[in-house]
Amino acid sequence: MIIITMAIACTSFAQTPNYWEQQGTPTQDGYTVPINSLVCTTTGGVFAGEEYGSVYCSMNDGSTWAVVAMPVPDSLGQIMSFSLFADGGGNLYSAEFINIWDSVHQANGDTLLGVVFKSQDNGKTWASIFNMNNVQFTSMAFISTDAIFIGTDSGVYHTTNGGGSWSYIDGTSGLGAVNISLLATDGNGNIIAQATSGSSILFRSTDDGQNWTLVGSGLNASITSILHYGNILYACSGDASVYSSLDTGATWNICKFTSNDRPISINCLVIDGSGNIFLGTTGGVYESTDSGKTCSAINKGLTNALQPPSVGSLAINMNDYLN
Predict the structure, then answer these.
(1) Of 132, 204, 243, 284, which sits with the fewest C-beta atoms within 10 Å of its C-beta?
(2) How many helices (H) and strands (E) does the chain have?
């Protein structure tokens, strides 16, 4: 992934010159590293997660990058999956699935470890806050810096003390041991979970995960990302659809694209401080300035940089720069 930045005005996006400028790119030994996730923290940093476990940080809107401490040392094992997350208090999290080395330094699959690390100093140091054998962590959602939900391939875990202790949300809650592919919050303390097993089903909890009910009327595909702006939830799907919900996920309305070059798939979405929606897709980046009613491509300066212009991660930092 090449890191490219677009400046977003705090007023109307359409009133400013909008184009993409290639910024500095995370490198190692002179080579561009493969990035699979981008997050921004309230400290002003932009963090890029390299698929093999390294974390890079930029404190100047993506112009320059520096590698920070790896959450997992190379001596532990082979990283099978790796994702970055950030809460609203400036903390950074790394969720990893590791194939532990055996006695002859081989990753033979005998011991698989899911582990979540937390950094409170912009990635300089990391501490393990949760780990389980043979469990893959898939997603995280934050009610606060203390109340955290983690989605796994076998259900959801919850902490109320910032990771000091964890509880499993069992089947009596209405959820249970299902593969959770997505977790999100609606801004009012409610949690949305997508369970995937053949087909995808959306659940909602309004009582800190104690009870879950089926929601999602109007959704026709598996969701790849959910975010909120005010009291509105927005979701994007792998079949290149965008949805909005005004009732905390109970029902959804589909949004429309205005351009003829509709992408094949939408990978992610972010929302800026003015409510403008940006979609990372297999056809570059799309924008909606009308609450998702219409979407159009904004690929000026981007198309020549990526062939094809597929965007897998987006993040908006405190200076309203889109990365």
Answers:
(1) 132
(2) 0, 30
Tokens read off for 3: 């890191």
Residues contacting 127, CB < 8 A, separation 6+: 117, 118, 119
Structurally, what CATH architecture does the domain formed by 136-215 represent? Beta Barrel (2.40)
Helices (H), the chain: none
Q: Tell how far CA 174 is from the center of its chain.
A: 25
Share of the chain above pLDDT 90, in %: 20
CA nearest neighbour of 180 among 210, 146, 157: 157
Query: From its phi and psi, is residue 238 left (phi > 0), alpha (psi between -120 and 50) or beta?
Result: alpha
Q: What is the pLDDT of residues 187-231, one digit of tens each?
A: 888 999 988 876 778 999 999 989 999 998 988 888 888 999 988
Give domain 220-323's CATH number out of 3.30.750.200, 2.40.10.500, 3.40.50.1370, 3.40.50.1000: 2.40.10.500
Q: Which of 89, 114, 111 is nearest to 100 (CA)?
A: 111
**Under 8 Å between Cβ of 107 and 72:** no
Domain borders along the chain are 136-215, 220-323
Residue carrying structure tokens 């007023």 = 11
The tens digit of pLDDT for each residue in 114-160 reads 889 999 998 889 899 998 888 888 899 999 999 999 999 889 999 99
Tell me whether domains 136-215 and 220-323 share a fold: yes
Write b or e for each residue in 196-215: b if 16 or more Cβ atoms lie within 10 A of its Cβ, otherwise e.
beeebbbbbbeeebeebeeb
Q: Which of 251, 249, 146 is nearest to 188 (CA)?
A: 249
pTM of the model: 0.85
Please write down the HEC assignment for all residues of 249-275: CCECEECEECCCCCCCCEEEEEECCCC
Rounded to whole angstroms, how far apart are CA atoms 79 and 55?
A: 13
